[in-house]
Amino acid sequence: MLHRIGLSSILAYCAVAGVIGGVSARGAEPLKVGDRAPDFSVTGIDGKQFSLSDKLKSGKHLVLIFSRAHW
Question: What pTM value is reported for the model?
Answer without folding.
Answer: 0.44
